[in-house]
Every structure is written in structure tokens, then in C-alpha cells.
Design goal:
alpha/beta, single chain, 6-stranded mixed β-barrel
């Protein structure tokens, strides 16, 4: 029997005897006892608190239950928050939630501490004359707003940088991107740039959408699971439960990972590839698949374009060559390929181990092509399950919080700006006038992607003559994003020093507020946590959930959209920014914001969403199956949890959402679909449209282009539109028709509005038309450079980007000899992202108190290093970090691995954190950043940074 919560009021607590029971102690202290956690719990009464002191809550105070979503990884676990007298006093994992079903990881179990952490910034602060001073909100908004206007007048709008956050709600992410647009710049980005930007580019250019195709729960239906570049046992523990359920049901698991990770421990086959050799490994798998005739020939014939080029490339990757380049044995590769062929359907799972490379876009394309070859797309238990790293990184990406996109992945072309100008009810010329009208290096700022967050520091430090904009960056917002997650930390520090104004908007000071060596010009604005506001978030599987507000903003913090509004009002753009959006108490109303973006984001099918529908799902978790994600009854009967996009039509049409993308075996009106026709109808005389494949009940039972006004006229369906619909549809396509008539008619004929095409193996607009192995810039294998060289240097959007220059320097300066160890990085279960929030939580800090490097016993013995020794690790560009050595066979000889969650120490010296409310904001645990040692390297399509392959040397300290 499934248990379901029926009330939002908890049973009144009874008086308890004096003393503290073991259960109460564990609940109070989280999951830790003693040490940091105990000091935090028992010592707070003896510390002078900020003005916003939290009063003691009587044990028998009424308990109100709020439904919220975990703020860490993107599984989207549900939580019941227990609130007494306005204080978050307890929590339970939601046992009836369709994603986590009562499961939690360490980070989720420790959530409630974030709202009242002593380490938070408690009021606006400014660094002046080397000292931190308290400011009022009025003062800080005035000073920052005045500086923004000064910079705009002198250097143009592009000299202000808007770094955003994957912690934003959908509504805040959308409004932040719109704020940058109204300011007149594309210099806006967030952490998706450095986690899954290569996924979005690679996958979208393969079959149409750059998102996870299935769901976490659907992994249970897989018969084979191929995990490459991911370690869900630590990074996504609740998702790992779905993987293990599949294993219990007979699925085989293959894990490709340089380390013997905790996920690899569950695998039937482990492929310990050399970092940076994903493409040769997957071609090696395909070699066996093609050689043995294991490919899905009919699927390929009907639904895949360009496979001949892949077959040609596969022939190069013989078992011997794959073993030579990747280091994986021929026997293991064959065994993995056989598992994939004999156990269908199969799914592929990847994360940042696959994306954070100079060939990241090609990696994600080769993973996708593998699934096309096997015919594993559009089916239960198949697809590409792409695990996102932050609670709303999927949603923030959808909202266009990117340097190269507007909401809904429309790009930044003139047509995209015209579409969104219509959505905003603003004249296009008025929006255009907000941008710099001049050209730089032959590029127009309005239609040229901005500077990515992976390289904002280059926007500060680079010779402005080499930038495709008027001037360098002078003022930067670091809003809910920790800069210690970026490589080349020495340059990051130099850029923080050179900026005229640094504005940190976050519950914590973050490393951007303390890493610099300056005396003035740094502002800390206390943002409320995600639990102190409400709004929607999207998990990795494209499902939306509504967070209820748990408590009011603590201390003097303000919600993100209120801070944005105050700044917008000061610089004179609030009226156009919020035109047609309801504003209450200086804050855009989330429900009103959702209605606007849902109306505009037609390209990914957001039009079927409404606040009422999303809230109805959140308030009825128990109605949805943990197996199918579908509601068998209740107010949401027949719908898929979270209405995963595309959710076609209008909210009142009740489209159920699309749990599995490209599923031809289902009617589009019930969540079916096919590959998207977004690349034209033919290439070099060959059709790009599907051949004899179509979604269930489609009137045209073959391939067809995307729907447009012209297509409706050609088909004789134009008169199915109303007269009002015709006026709005004339000259438009399905994705720009604000009346929705084109989509309505397509659905009436059971056809997918975006057309029906083949997935493509060839992307003729990318530097490499098919996935091509290129040795990492800092490769340990100089013998392979001639055969598999990197790219030539190139200009990517606004920035010059080096490839061959770096690789040539490695050889010329013998850097591979001076730094003989491969260096890579990844996640721990205890922390998330840059770690500022999680390391400021004593219940988590207790669990992992040291920054460390994993190294093989042989490498340690060669250097006289023992487990637990303090060592100096130096990267190939001179960045040095002082850390602990973990000597373990988990990594093979010649390779090392580090977590990237640490900061607060640089080159062995502690950084100085400010006090706020008389209490230091220094996290409970600090350490060197792995990214101080990591080096230059960027994907040529997305500017994703390289964090998985570089070189280093290690010596005992």
C-alpha cells in the first residue's frame, strides 16, 4: 500500500521529559555528532548573533507542513518542511514523492540548516578602505546603480557582466535574463556553461532538443545501463537507487570511468579509460557492434542521417588502436559491446566527466550516436539520461540564462529578438536601441553571443582590441554562483582585482567576495535562500515542481527578484522590464512571470504549463506512480508528474507532458513524438526527413518539415484556423506564432509541430562534422599528437581561443615531462558545486574536513608520500595547492583525482572572510581549490572549460 500525506498540519507535539533523547539529539544535530556539528549546536547560545535573532521555539508550538524541493542536485527530491512559529524546525523526505519516495542523501538531509546558518551575510556590506562596513539596502542599490550607469555611459552596456545562478527559480532566471536584455547586453550566463553546455549543443544538434530524453524513474525499465563520465553513487545518490532497482530486475551495468568509483563498484563491466578518450572508446564499442551486425538496421534506415560517415570513422578504431589510445583492454570493450547488443533497451547516462572537455560537444554527440546505432531512442528504458548537477540548472538553461540564447533556445538572432520583443509587448527597435549599435571585429553585439561565465575573467584581462565589444568588463555581478568552480584561478583572482566593482549577491560571501586582494569596491548583498521564496524549478527530466515558501527571508536578506527590481528601478528600466507582469511589494509575482514565459517559450512546448497545473502536481505527490510517473486518478489523472516539456497547447487542453522524447509509439497528444526537423529538409541532395517512421496516428505517415503558415496553406489546412488565429499566424512558424493556431492544427492532425526528421550524425556547422578524437591540450601522450591533433587557434564569438598554441607549448617546453601525472576532478557526496553553502553547514562539514588528492600507491611510493601526508600539487601552468594525499588504488598509476568543492585557501594561505552580525562568514571547512591547479582549455562550440584532463606534479610538503 502506498502511503500518502493528506494533511499539511502535523500532529501536535506532546510534552517530553527533561533531557534529550537519542532521536532528538540526532534530529537536532543532523547526521553528525561531536566535532563541528556539536560545536555549532551547543555553542550558538554563547555567540553574539546578528540583529535578526531567532527566538526559541516551544516544543508544542503548532507545526505547519510546507512542500519544498531539495536545493542540491537535479533529481528533484521532495521534502516536507516542518515550520513552527515561522522557524524551520524539522524535515522529512517525502515518502509519497514520485522521484525520491522517501529517499535522501546527506545534503538533502541537512537542508534546514541553510535558512538559519550563522555563516550567512546578514545585511548589505561594502569593502571600503580595507574594512567591511554595513550599508542599508537603499544605500547599496544607489551606489551600485550609479556605478552601472557610469560604466554604461563611458564604456557601453557590455562592460557590465551578469553572472546568474542555477539556484534561481525558473521565474527569477527568466527575469534575470530579461534584465540583461533590457540593460542591452548578452554578457549574461550561469553555471550550465561549465556543466552541460556541451550537452545542450551536442544533443540538440543531433536530434533537436538538448535535454535528458527520458526520466530518472524510467531507468528502472532499462536492460543495460552505460554510465560514462558520471558517478551517481556520490553525485546523484537518489538517482542511483533507480539504477540499482534496474540491476535488481536483471539489467547489466557498464561504467566507463578512469577511477574505480563507488558507481563502478556496482558495475558488471568497468572500462578504466584514460581521461579525454571517450570518443575512441565509444567508436571501439561501435566497431564490435558493426562488425557483428548488432546495429538496429531498420531504425537507422528510417530515422538516422549520416551513418555512413560514422561507419568510415569506426573502421579506424580497431580493438588494438582503441586499447592503445584509451588504455582499456580489448576484452573489456568487447564484453561491454556484447552486453549492449544483447540487453535492450539500454540507456546511456553521463554527467560532467563527459562534458567538461575541449571535445565536450563531440563527446555528447558520440554518446547519442551510440544510442541511434543500437535503436535505443524513443522507448522505455532507453534514451540518454543526462544528469544535471544543480536543482534548477535545467530550468535556468531553458530560461535562456546563457550568453548565446534567449528563453527557449531561440538563439540571439534578429528573428529571436523580434519574437521576444512581441512577447514582451515592446517595439523591436526600442529593444535594439538598448544595445551598442556599433560593430566590433565585424560582429554586432545584439546578435553576437556574449562572454561565457567560464571566461568572464578574460573579458576583464584580455586586450580589448581582441574583444568583439567596445571595452573590457568593468563591473560584474556574481549572483548565486561560486567562481572557484572555474579553472585558471590565478587569472580569476587577477580579474577580481582589476574589476572596478565586484557585486556578490548570495546568502554567503562566496569566494568572489574574498579571493581578491583589493581594499575597495566589493559589495555583498544578502540574497534569501531558495526556501525563503516560492516558484518553480525543473529537474533533469524536464519536469517542473513548485516550491512553497518555507519561511520568511532571514536577517535582512531579500529575494532575488526583489533585488533585481530595486536595481532595475534605479537604472530606469523597471517599467519595461515588468511590462504586463504583476509586481507586489517591489517583487514580480512568480505566477505572473510564469504566464509570460510560457506564452513565449513555444520552441520547447512550455505553453501547456500554468502555475495552477504545476501547483496541482506538487500538492498531490501521492497521486503519481513512482514507476510510471503517471497519475492513475485524482485531479491530475492521466498526466505525467511535472508536465515534462514539451507540454503542447494551452493549459486548459490538458496535454499530459512528454516523459520520453521522440517516442513514435505514442500519439503526440498523449506525449508521443519523433526527432525534430530543425536543420532543413535536405543536405547535399539527401533528405533529412524521416523515412516511413512517424508518431502514432499522424495524418502524414512519413517525414515532414516543421509546421508554418506556408505549410498549412500547402496542405490545405489554413482554413482550420480562426480568423484571429490567421492574423497572428501569417508569416510565422509554429515556434513564433503567439496565437498558437499553427500548433493547434498540427495537434488536431496528430502531428508534431516541430516536424518529423531523422536524427543526424553529421553536424556541418561545427568545427568537426562528426565526433573526432583530438588529444587533450595538456596530453601525456605526445606520441599521439600528430595523428590526433587539437584544433587550430580560433576566435569564438567575442574571445580569442587557443588550441594548437597550448598543445605546441606542452611539447616545446617538455611540460609533459615536468608534470607527468594526469590531473582530473569531480564530486563528493557531502558537498555540492563550489561548496560555499554545503561547507557552511556543520552537519555536512563534519563529514569531510580536508581537501585531498587521490594518487596511486606506486606514484606515492616514487615520491616518498604516505597516506595522509600533506603535499604540494602543482599544475602545468604553475598553480600550486597544499592538500592531503589519499593513497589509493582507486586511481591507476599516472593518474590523480581531486574534488572541486573547496575554497578559502590559495597557495597555502588562508583567505580572509568578513564578519557579519559579529560572526565570521568563514565556512566551517575551507581548503585549496582544485581549479587553482587546473589549466587552460575550452570547447570550440560552447566555451566549456576543461576540468577532466590536465597535467601536474606532486611533492611532499
Amino acid at each position: 500500500m502506498k502511503l500518502t500525506r493528506k494533511s499539511d498540519v502535523a500532529v501536535k507535539a506532546e510534552a517530553k521529559p527533561l533531557g534529550m533523547s537519542r532521536r532528538h539529539f540526532m534530529k537536532t544535530a543532523g547526521i553528525a555528532t561531536g566535532g563541528i556539528a556539536a560545536a555549532s549546536m551547543l555553542g550558538t547560545g554563547m555567540i553574539r548573533r546578528a540583529e535578526a535573532k531567532i527566538a526559541a521555539v516551544p516544543h508544542d508550538a503548532p507545526v505547519e507542513i510546507k512542500r519544498t524541493i531539495c536545493s542540491h542536485c537535479a533529481v528533484g527530491c521532495g521534502i516536507y518542511a516542518e515550520v513552527q512559529n515561522g522557524v524551520w524546525t524539522g524535515q522529512e523526505p517525502a515518502f509519497d514523492h514520485p522521484f525520491n519516495a522517501g529517499g535522501h542523501c546527506a545534503k538533502g538531509a541537512a537542508l534546514r540548516y541553510h535558512t538559519h546558518s550563522d555563516k550567512r551575510v546578514k545585511y548589505p556590506m561594502k569593502l571600503e578602505g580595507g574594512k567591511w562596513k554595513k550599508l542599508s539596502w537603499e544605500q547599496v542599490v544607489t551606489e551600485i546603480g550609479d556605478k552601472m550607469q557610469q560604466v554604461r555611459k563611458e564604456s557601453g552596456p557590455d562592460s557590465v557582466y551578469f553572472m546568474g545562478s542555477a539556484k534561481f527559480s525558473n521565474e527569477a532566471a527568466y527575469m534575470y535574463r530579461k534584465l540583461a536584455a533590457m540593460w542591452g547586453t548578452n554578457n549574461v550566463d550561469h553555471s550550465a556553461r561549465i556543466c552541460h553546455s556541451t550537452t545542450v549543443a551536442g544533443v540538440a544538434n543531433t536530434w533537436g532538443y538538448g535535454a535528458q530524453t527520458n526520466s530518472f524513474n524510467d531507468i528502472r525499465n532499462a536492460k543495460n545501463i552505460f554510465v560514462i563520465g558520471a558517478n551517481p553513487a556520490e553525485a546523484h545518490p537518489v538517482a542511483m537507487q533507480h539504477i540499482l532497482t534496474a540491476k535488481e530486475r536483471g539489467a547489466t551495468i557498464t561504467v566507463a570511468d578512469p577511477r574505480f568509483s563507488r558507481t563502478a563498484a556496482h558495475a558488471h563491466v568497468h572500462l578504466p579509460l584514460r581521461p579525454g578518450t571517450d570518443i575512441p572508446l565509444v567508436y571501439g564499442l561501435m566497431w564490435h557492434i558493426f562488425e557483428n551486425g548488432w546495429e538496429d538496421k531498420e531504425f537507422i534506415r528510417q530515422r538516422v542521417f549520416g551513418i555512413d560517415k560514422i561507419r568510415e570513422e569506426v573502421k579506424r578504431w580497431t580493438p588494438d588502436e582503441v586499447e592503445n589510445v584509451t588504455g582499456v583492454s580489448k576484452e573489456a570493450v568487447y564484453k561491454a559491446a556484447k552486453h549492449m547488443a544483447e540487453h535492450k533497451p539500454g540507456t546511456v547516462i553521463w554527467c560532467m566527466g563527459g562534458t567538461q572537455h575541449t571535445v565536450g560537444n563531440a563527446n555528447t554527440r558520440i554518446y547519442s550516436i551510440l544510442q541511434l546505432v543500437l535503436g535505443n531512442m524513443g522507448v522505455k528504458g532507453g534514451g540518454t539520461n543526462i544528469f544535471r548537477g544543480h536543482d534548477n540548472v535545467q530550468g535556468a538553461t531553458d530560461m535562456g540564462l546563457l550568453f548565446d540564447n534567449l528563453p527557449g533556445y531561440y538563439g540571439v538572432t534578429t528573428g529571436a529578438w523580434q519574437h521576444w520583443s512581441r512577447v514582451w509587448d515592446l517595439p523591436f527597435d526600442e529593444v535594439k536601441a538598448r544595445f551598442d549599435a556599433n560593430q566590433y571585429l565585424g560582429r554586432d553585439p545584439m546578435t553576437t553571443p556574449g562572454i561565457p561565465c567560464s571566461r568572464w575573467h578574460d573579458g576583464v584581462l584580455e586586450d580589448k582590441a581582441k574583444l568583439a565589444q567596445k571595452d573590457n568588463l568593468r563591473l560584474a555581478f556574481f549572483w548565486g554562483q561560486s567562481v572557484n568552480t572555474e579553472t585558471r584561478q590565478m587569472e580569476v583572482r587577477d580579474a577580481l582585482d582589476k574589476l572596478e566593482t565586484v557585486v556578490v549577491v548570495d546568502p554567503y560571501p562566496t569566494i568572489a567576495g574574498v579571493m581578491h586582494r583589493r581594499k575597495d569596491g566589493v559589495y555583498l548583498l544578502p540574497a534569501a535562500t531558495v526556501f525563503e521564496g516560492e516558484g518553480s524549478v525543473n529537474n533533469s527530466g524536464r519536469s517542473a515542481q513548485w516550491r512553497q515558501q518555507v519561511v520568511e527571508p532571514m536577517f535582512e536578506s531579500k529575494r532575488d527578484m526583489e533585488i533585481m527590481y530595486l536595481l532595475a528601478k534605479h537604472v530606469g528600466i523597471a517599467d519595461v522590464w515588468t511590462k504586463n507582469i504583476e509586481v507586489k511589494n517591489n517583487r514580480p509575482v512568480p505566477e505572473s512571470v510564469m504566464r509570460e514565459y510560457a506564452r513565449g517559450m513555444r520552441s520547447i512546448g512550455y505553453t501547456g504549463w500554468s502555475p495552477e497545473r504545476i501547483k496541482a502536481h506538487t500538492m498531490n505527490w501521492g497521486d503519481f506512480s513512482n514507476e510510471t510517473l503517471e497519475a492513475a486518478g485524482g485531479v491530475n489523472k492521466g498526466e505525467t508528474y511535472g508536465l515534462p516539456w514539451p507540454c503542447w497547447g494551452l493549459p486548459e487542453q490538458k496535454h499530459p507532458g512528454t516523459q520520453i522524447l521522440y517516442r513514435t509509439g505514442m500519439n503526440v497528444n498523449q506525449g508521443g513524438g519523433n526527432f525534430r526537423a530543425r536543420f532543413g529538409v535536405e543536405y547535399q541532395g539527401e533528405s533529412l526527413l524521416a523515412d516511413g517512421s512517424f508518431s502514432k496516428d499522424a495524418d502524414i505517415q512519413d517525414g515532414y518539415p516543421e509546421f508554418s503558415a506556408d505549410m498549412l496553406k500547402q496542405l490545405g489546412w489554413w482554413d482550420e484556423l480562426t480568423e484571429d488565429e490567421k492574423k497572428l499566424a501569417e508569416g510565422r512558424t509554429w515556434s513564433t506564432d503567439l496565437g498558437g493556431g499553427i500548433v493547434r492544427v498540427a495537434l488536431a492532425h496528430n502531428m508534431v509541430p516541430y516536424g518529423n526528421a531523422k536524427a543526424r550524425c553529421r553536424v556541418w556547422t561545427f568545427p568537426d562534422e562528426i565526433p573526432t578524437h583530438r588529444e587533450p591540450l595538456y596530453t601525456p601522450r605526445r606520441d599521439l599528437i600528430a595523428k590526433y591533433p587539437t584544433h587550430d587557434d580560433m576566435q569564438v564569438h567575442r574571445l580569442p581561443t587557443l588550441f594548437k598554441t597550448i598543445q605546441d607549448k606542452v611539447v616545446a617546453d617538455n611540460l609533459d615531462k615536468k608534470y607527468p601525472l594526469i590531473m582530473s576532478s569531480g564530486r563528493l557526496v557531502e558537498y555540492e558545486g563550489g561548496g560555499e553553502e554545503s561547507r557552511s553547514n556543520p552537519w555536512l562539514a563534519e563529514l569531510q574536513q580536508e581537501m585531498f588528492v587521490e594518487m596511486n600507491p606506486a606514484d606515492a611510493a616514487d615520491r616518498g608520500i604516505r597516506n595522509g601526508d600533506t603535499v604540494w600539487l602543482e599544475g602545468a601552468e604553475g598553480g600550486r595547492i597544499r592538500i592531503k594525499a589519499m593513497v589509493t588504488p582507486r586511481v591507476v598509476p599516472g593518474q590523480t583525482w581531486m574534488p572541486y568543492h573547496f575554497a578559502g585557501v590559495m597557495h597555502g594561505e588562508d583567505l580572509q572572510y568578513p564578519e557579519s552580525g559579529g560572526i565570521s562568514t568563514r565556512p566551517y571547512v575551507v581548503g585549496e581549490s582544485a581549479n587553482t591547479a587546473l589549466t587552460y582549455g575550452y570547447d570550440p562550440v560552447t566555451q566549456m572549460q576543461e576540468t577532466k584532463v590536465s597535467l601536474c606534479q606532486i611533492a611532499k610538503a
